[in-house]
UniProtKB/TrEMBL annotation:
This is Ca2+-binding protein, RTX toxin-related. Gene3D superfamilies: Serralysin-like metalloprotease, C-terminal. Pfam families: HemolysinCabind. GO terms for cellular component: extracellular region.
Length: 581
């Protein structure tokens, strides 16, 4: 039947057996066994053991350190006061620890475990369980099944175990482990540690300075507010730092890493990663793989590392290093410092005044807008100054340099270079090697420096110096001043009234049909200088008239081109001074 048993005082054993029984332990350390059907067991005072048996039972430990065992059926276990142990066993049970440091084991079935006050241990067991730590520093294990774990207040530890679990630390500083399955972890308030474990997980740090570890699988990590540390580890991970100064590590495989918040540090790790620093000044490292890195707003520090990287500073004053590999680098707006590193790099300075180093490899470097300084360093580089007044240095090997618009300074450096001033009043120095120099438009200052150079002044009033060795110097349009320098030079003033100096060595001065009135300042018989006349102007000595004009000799070639030989006697002129081509 449906019995009512009350143990009263002392240590009692009560057995309900058949029927829907009510058992009350009373005082003492009692043992209550509900038996069959739906029973209610009350331990009351003392350290009691309550066993529900079969049926849907309700067990209340009340005072004392009690042990409650639900047995078969969908049971409700309430520990009450002090440190209790609750075992749901079979069925879909609800276990509530209440006060004290309690241990709750749901075991089989879809159970609800509530720790209550105190530092509790909650173990879901098999089934899809819901675990609520509530107050205190709780230790919670979902184990098998798709479980939901909620820490609430206190520094809690939540472990999902097997299955697709939902873990929410809520308040204070919590530790969350997803373990196996596709888990969702939320840190809540406080400085939390979240570890996704195996499979594809979602981790949300939320408030506080959190540490998030994705583990194996393709994970989503969101730091949210606070200064967070986020590790993707294995898999193709998506990571957002959001607010705060975050440290982000992509780990292996191909990751998408976004700082978004304040001054972030991001490491791509292995794989082909996408990195975006977002706001403020970030430190971004691609490491291994072919990475894409965007600095975003702020003064960013970017290093591509190994691989063929695509690096962009975006806004503000950025410092970018390509590292090893064939990199593409864009400075963006503001004043950037861009370094290609090893490999064949392509670098664009963007707006404002940039400093660009190609480093080793055959690089292509563009200054774009602003007054840029570009240094090719090692390799056969192509350099484009772009708009404004630029300083361009080839340095090592065979470089090709274009000044673009503006008044540029160009220095080829070592080896045989091809240097083009283009528009503007440019200064070009060939350096060592057999250089090809073209001033382009504007009043240019062009110097071959060492070795056998070819220099073309182009339009404008240019100053041209051959330097050492055998040079070919062409003034182009405008009133040019041309200095041959040492050794045997070929000098051609071209259109305009030019001043020509051969310098030391046996020089050849060349004249064509459309040349202006040129003055040779140092024509020397002793050095063996000669005058070469193009067939378009004259074909034999008889077409040349000459006379003395003060200290100078004047030549009039085929009634077309006039040449003055300063400090030279007309009586020394004969056909041996001329050649015709």
């Amino acid at each position: 039947g449906n019995d009512y048993l009350n143990g009263g005082n002392d240590n009692d054993k009560l057995y309900g057996q058949d029927g829907n029984d009510t058992l009350v332990g009373g005082h003492g350390n009692d043992h209550l066994d509900g038996g069959e059907h739906d029973d209610k067991l009350y331990g009351e005072w003392g350290n009691d053991r309550l066993e529900g048996g079969n049926g849907n039972d309700a067990l209340y430990g009340q005072d004392g350190n009690d042990v409650l065992v639900g047995g078969h059926g969908n049971d409700h276990l309430d520990g009450g006061e002090h440190d209790d142990k609750l075992y749901g066993q079979w069925g879909n049970d609800r276990l509530e620890g209440r006060n004290g440091n309690d241990g709750l084991w749901g075991e089989d079935g879809d159970d609800v475990l509530v720790g209550g006050h105190g530092d509790d241990h909650l173990n879901g067991g098999n089934g899809n369980d819901a675990l609520h730590g509530e107050w205190g520093n709780d230790d919670m294990h979902g184990l098998a099944g798709d479980d939901k774990l909620y820490g609430w207040t206190g520094n809690d530890t939540l472990r999902g175990g097997d299955g697709n679990d939902h873990l929410d630390g809520q308040q204070d500083n919590d530790t969350l482990y997803g373990d196996n399955g596709h888990d969702t972890l939320l840190g809540g308030a406080g400085n939390d540690y979240l570890n996704g474990g195996n499979d594809n997980d979602k981790l949300y740090g939320q408030d506080g300075n959190d540490t998030l570890v994705g583990g194996h699988g393709n994970d989503l990590l969101y730091g949210n507010s606070g200064d967070d540390v986020l590790h993707g580890q294995w898999g193709n991970d998506y990571i957002e730092g959001n607010g705060g100064n975050d440290w982000i590590y992509g780990g292996d495989n191909e990751d998408r890493l976004l700082g978004l918040g304040q001054n972030d540090r991001i490491w791509g790790g292995n794989g082909h990663d996408y990195i975006d620093g977002g706001n403020d000044g970030d430190w971004l490292y691609g490491e291994a793989g072919n990475d894409t890195i965007i600095g975003g707003t702020g003064n960013d520090h970017i290093e591509g590392g190994d691989g063929n990287d695509n690096l962009s500073g975006d806004g503000h004053d950025d410092l970018i290093y390509g590292g090893a590999g064939d990199d593409t680098i864009s400075g963006g707006n503001e004043k950037d410092q861009l370094h290609g590193g090893d490999g064949v790099d392509r670098i664009w300075g963007g707006a404002d005044n940039d400093l660009i180093h190609g480093n080793s490899g055959n690089d292509h470097l563009w200054g774009d807008d602003g007054q840029d300084t570009i240094i090719g360093d090692g390799g056969n580089d192509c350099i484009y100054g772009g708009n404004n007044h630029d300083k361009l240095y080839g340095e090592g090997h065979r470089d090709t340099i274009f000044g673009g618009t503006g008044n540029d300074y160009i220095d080829g450096g070592n080896d045989a270079d091809r240097l083009f001033g283009e528009s503007g009043h440019d200064t070009i120095v060939g350096g060592t090697g057999n250089d090809h120099i073209e001033g382009g438009d504007g009043n240019d200052n062009l110097s071959g420096d060492g070795h056998d150079d070819k220099i073309y002044g182009g339009a404008g009033n240019d100053t041209i110096s051959g330097g050492n060795e055998k040079d070919q110097l062409h003034g182009g349009d405008g009133a040019d001043s041309i200095f041959g320098g040492n050794d045997q030079d070929f000098i051609q003033g071209n259109a305009g009234n030019d001043h020509l100096w051969g310098g030391t060595g046996k020089d050849t001065f060349d004249f064509e049909r459309w040349d202006g009135h040129d003055v040779i300042k140092d024509f020397s018989l002793r050095q063996g200088d000669t005058i070469q006349i193009d067939a378009s102007l004259a074909t034999h000595f008889g077409q040349i008239s000459y006379w003395q004009n003060g200290s100078s000799a004047e030549l009039y070639i085929n009634h077309n081109v006039r040449v003055t030989l300063e400090n030279f006697s007309a009586s020394d002129i004969d056909k041996d001074l001329f050649s015709f081509s």
